[in-house]
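Self-study notes.
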Amino acid sequence: MLHASEAEERRAKNIIWNAAGDYDFTPDFLSFTPEGAADLYLNCIIGAVHRYYDYRPLKDLFVRIGQLPDAALYEGLLWFGLAHSVYPAAKEDRPVLETLRLEYARDVVSHSRPYWDQELLERLQTAYCAGLLGQTARLRRREKRIMEAVLFSPSLDSRAIADQMVHILKEFFRCRLPELHEARSHRVLPFRLGIAALHGRPAFVTRVHSEEDGGGVHAPVTLTLPVLLARSGKQTLRSWLETNFGISVYTSQEQEELERMLCTEGHRSCHLHVTRGEYRRTSSKAQNSFRQAMLFQKERNLSFHHAHLADHMTAISRMTDQIRNVLQFDDGEQLYRARSGRLIAARVWRGIRLHDEKIFAGTTPCEKGNLSIDILLDASASQMDRQERIAAQGFIIAESLTRCRLPVRVCSYCSVNGCTVLRIFRDYENPQDNKRIFEYCSAGWNRDGLAIRITGYRLLNSGYENRLLIVLSDCSPNDDHRYSSRKGPIPFSYDYGGTHGIRDAAAEVNRLRRQNVGVLAVCTGHEKDLPAAREIYGNDVAWAGTEEQMADAVTYLIREKLRRL
């Protein structure tokens, strides 16, 4: 029997294939309701685009747009226009679309937020849907011009639509699209899907990669995260987060206070969600695809670990021994002598000649003071191709530190719909929970600065005297929620990515270091990512190809940090 998510995935594909009149292609896009059911209207639109247009120019355009910082906005505009242009032809074959579109329009208008709280796509779709219902909605002059440009004429073919979209991006957003060969040299990330902007009610949309997109074929349910419309409201967002990621460790009042303290400056419109991955009893795993995805990925992580068990255990033993040495010795001088523990060969003669019983190194933890270590794993979609390896690396580091009797906390972070999610796998007092790290699963974006800020707040309030933070990340901050600035007389905002994202993450790292928190990083990306990593973390960055090399590099950084404590 299929899981509900698998059944709905198949249903979504069947709706698309039926609307397209073609069963010989793999859809690039699927749409689901918050309950995990295939969305009838949006999947019909997807299928209709395949039926009435040559999809190849559109596919190429989506690939190119997917590399841009504001890809979600631009893809949304493209799908907004496609839904408008394909509707007349699709309605001729499927009169029921008229009813579905009106239902959709009523949902959009009924769920619309105040104008000043809406993003551009929300404003456009609210105005458009209000017009379908014979109503009016507020739009500024520039927004009206964008609306007029993006509502493609039904007489245009796909190449003309692609050309018009390129012109729109250039005229209104001063945006240069990468050439197709440039775009295909990178992996197109999921979740930057504008089709969600077509729907007024909360809609789940996933993208399925093809080989032409620069990646292999992936199962959308097991390897991607759906997108929730921001228009659904804070309470709906909170409920959705708890359903998919687990209930918060904070009460509602504590949550609001936390966001008042930390979601400030460029993050003031963001939210936080801290969870241990625990769900309410009334929550069903079968009701949402992302929980199924996490379970699926956990099995993959464990399989990878078992397949490389010998290498991983060697790395753990090596790392444990080296860290124990730095905890017990400083430049070859003994810091802790005891009557039992690890034998010190150089002192054996004292036991024979001087009857000195303290010829052992005590195994009591760290003589550097009261020490805690936090491990933070980047769980954004950019890590999708290396989830198993990151889970293994996190486990190796945590297990090694645990064997040294050090208090360790391990969390992952990602961002979705402007909310940074911090998932706790194991806490300081729970050394038996190291294997929960294999529940690691990548999804969404990564707002590194805010993730480091919330982690820093929690470790600074942990009660430990000395604190060390180890971040495993590709060091490429990127979020679809913009970074706001109020410097100067006119407020403005940046795309959270590239230079701005790196600077924000670096500022948070420096802020922690000024508070005597040691921060180091393991670059999980490629060698080309190291310059950005060093801009954020300075020289405290390790990068290595194998788990054993990673363990040696991390051990060296930990050793240097501990000696400075």
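Second protein, same conventions, sequence then structure:
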Amino acid sequence: MSQLGNYVKFFSFILKYYNSSVLKSASDTIVNDAVTDVQDNYDRKPQELVEDLKQMGPAYVKLGQLLSTRPDLLPDDYLLALSELQDDVETISFEEIRKIFEEETGARLSKAFQSFDPEPLASASIGQVHRAVLPSGRLVVVKIQRPDIRKKFIDDLDTLREMAALAVKHSKEAKKYDLTTIIEELRIILLNELDYTKEFQNLEHLRYNLKNFPRLIIPEPVQDYSTSRVLTMDYIQGKKITEISPLTKTETDFTPLIDELTESYMQQIIVDGLVHADPHPGNIHVTGDGKMALMDLGMVARFSTTIQEKIMKLLIGMSRKNGDEITDALLEMSEYDSHEIDVKSFRKEINRLVMNSTASHAEDMQTGRALIHMNRVAANHFIHIATELNILGKIMLNLDQIIAVLTPKYDLQKAIQKFMDNIVNQKIKQDLNSGNIYSFLLDNKKLAENLPYRLNKISENLANNEFELRINALDEKRVTDGFQKVANRITSGLIIAAMIIGAALLMRIPSSYTIMGYGILPFLFFMIAIGLGLYLIYNILFKDEDLKKRK
């Protein structure tokens, strides 16, 4: 009955907004390169959409949160309304917070903390955040997960997965964009976000990876009071980027800070393979001493070594505005049928997209949006690009926003070029670590051990005329037919020669029946041999394909 209720509310939502200009505008916005001012045409109010998402369930609230960081999809009114989903969620009572904390950690709240603020700093769709002070005087925040939130998420995600499978079965567009894979990836991301032990690990790993960036702050977690549903970490006092006053923006040079932020993300993406995947303005805080804090590490992306190398090629191509380099990188990280797609047309469209993206300043340039458009172009050509490109697009889109707010004249592509040499050197050093070298030496050890045996085997086969050479590049049927033709010619030649020799030998034997003074039998052998010989010569001169071509 509960699942039936999920279906009902899902279809009710779709029916309500299917013909709405909200969805139509979002679709048109992606296809077109410019966001048009169409909010006056909407038949659904922004706040109505927000309330509907809240009623749909926590998974849909999370989807709304993701949409609030996508200015390429929706106008400002809707972005502002959806951003309320990040801060304006019904709070959990203090008694419930106390109960969850004590059940999870096994410690009494009053003993664990010198003080604990009952009023939350923030209340989000997954958890609630409170400020507290440890007995040592250390300022911390405690993030506590909502009760039964995991089950609610799973129910909503199951509904979305089933609806996506239905859409793929009956919709060409859903199939083209592989909607089931998208929903499955969303499921993995959200379920990981529900496990605070993973966020704890993310905090520690990122703190270590970014230790050489003094202007960047990653909160340090507190292990004693952290579980799968409770996360305690340093309290970072600062302002969201969106809360910085225009006067502060004018008087402060944020370029060094943005330089460090950009380089750190290049390192995360290309070297570390562990990336803070949700750097929207609400998760980036500027502190009073001019540093930048990366908050909310529940959502991270992991890039394999292979993907890192392909992304590196892609970003270098984008920094150079080289459409061919970009196309090659995209094709390398894609799955497609070379016989069914038009690579030339795809290359042409990517080059056109690059040529139209001539802006260099952050206020005009949208690197993340360009990546999203590239993915769409690929989908239209039935080229399935790796999921990591979508994640990269979202990361770069959020970085575009941050940079445009703090340093509107910042040249991101020039910065990527500047940092790329250093990043590439780090990548090479990483690949040349002791583990990789040891693996290389082991592989070569095996080669050295097996090489004498293999050489001896080859020599033995050559000596015994047992050596076989198989070349897949040749047309096997053509080669076989050629050998058969040669064998037939040799056999025919041997038969003709045998008949001539036989005729010569028979001529020495006296016979009472003769033709032109020769015995009948040798004469017949000799004439047959001549006939076969002439026929063989005719085939060689006029029937063989190669000789005809030479003429």
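Instructor comment on the second fold: The longest strand covers residues 127-133.
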